[in-house]
Amino acid sequence: MATEASASASAAPAEDDVKIRIRNLSVNYRDLAALKDVSLDIRRNDLLTIMGPTASGKTTLLRTINRLNDIYPYAKATGSLTIDGLEVYDPAVSASWLRKVVGMVFALPIPLPMSIYDNVAYGPRLYGRPSRRQLDEIVERSLRGAALWDEVKDRLSDLGHHLSGGQQQRLCLARTLAVEPEIILLDEPCSGLDPISTLRIEELLHDLVAKYTVVLVTHNPQQAARVGGDVAVFYLGELVEMGPAERIFTSPKDRRTESFISGRIG
Amino acid sequence: MTSAPWEDGSDGREERGGRERDRQGRSHGSRRGGGLPRGGDSLAERSAIGLLWAAAISAVAVLGFIVVYVLWHGLPQLTPEFLLQSPSAMGREGGILPTIIGTVAVTAVGLIIAIPLGVGTAIYLTEYTRSEAVTAIIRFGAECLAGIPSIIFGLFGFLFFVIYLKMGWSLLSGGLTLAAMVLPTIIRTTEEAIKAVPLSHREVSLSLGATRWQTVTRAVLPTAMPGIITGVMLSIGRAVGETAAVIFTAGSSLRLPTSIFSPVRTMSVHFYILAREGISMPRAYGTAAVLVLLILAINFAAYWAMNRFVARRT
Fold first, then answer.
1. CA–CA separation, A223 vs B231, rounded Å?
2. Confidence band (pLDDT; 50, 70, 90) for B39?
């Protein structure tokens, strides 16, 4: 399984090219097996799209990478998951430190009930006491990074949830960028958005890859095709196959991939 | 906030109602001349609205009557001397200053103890403990405490704080007793307020690298604050007006308190003694009027503060 998956990931990446290495990872919620023996590599400064129908374990995989599943006492992960060679589930690794390195954008935009400025500054304020000037700088840089600065620069003290849905989601992205993570996980970030807002987020993804390792989860094959990069197909907790988007969409090796792409399952 | 389940429910009903109306409109529309159904005006509907309205009005009327009655008899007593002088001749003459200070001081001591303890317990119960059994036991204990008559608290405070811990009749004994009495209210309301904060806010905070404590203090508590303040307000209301629990523990001294170990008399105790021992009914009403005004003032101040707080965040 392990060799098979990494072999199918475009031509076995070199060792130091790998940002996240997952080996024989299984996750169970009590009796429910959400991920079954998954092995895959995610390369540095690359975009990996995780695609699959509902209940295929996509979100579980993301929440395992940043250990957000720790908040569910009944979620049990076994196997190995390393970031830059560091075992994430090592008891010596602090979850809050890890989550600073691994940022996450959720399916629905969730601005905290505070101003746009405070939303973006939430992360930086958790570590040390940045000065007002430093914070101003971080907020501007992050909002520019999420292509939101021009729309909100004159109303930074407005409440975050007064923005439109698409703007809120970009605010959430800016909030994640403000922490200066190395990896960004996006969990169906466009599921609540209109087509134009979706397009803006997808465009942003390409800019992000220059600086970050990006993992995008989607249940929408069209989005995976538009975004490109590598695609990993999941079905019922199993990694079905993985490879460059063109290959997956033109000549899928697995029948389940074909059924999903063509809309027979999903 | 997330939309509550009942909102979905009522939406659903609306839709169903709408569809029915459509059907009715099609079948009976011409006969009725306008097509609008008269379902909303049925006798049952009208009498229900009438009864609810009457219930609401009488609830407010009772409150209004009490306040007006007390103020009617008490306000004529309110002179600067009454508010700013110490009583003489057991309270038949002079003012009630020591009892005003005593009330505020005992309540303050009680809250200073009860708020951190109660909010802390609620945070622990909702955010930290994962053991259902521990939570259930603490919750059950808190609920039992809430149902105990205040005079029992007074007796407990007298035996435990005053006698056993040798604190004597004092601000501290009274404050501790009041704290024990209002603790369940603060725990329960804080718990509800914290539970109403969506899980997603915690996830966002954690995903940005916050520790659990940072998440509680920066993402959860600010959102829960209006609910917590409501609980504290209810507690202040109960503590300020409490008589039985403090008469046994804070004493009934008419001297101005000088330290936390001084005995004090609260306004409600003063009122009780004035009325019970027939010292002076007009003075008793005057004291009651000050007490009512104080409670009203505290409530208005709290709601004003809460509205400002909420307005900044919604």
1. 48
2. low
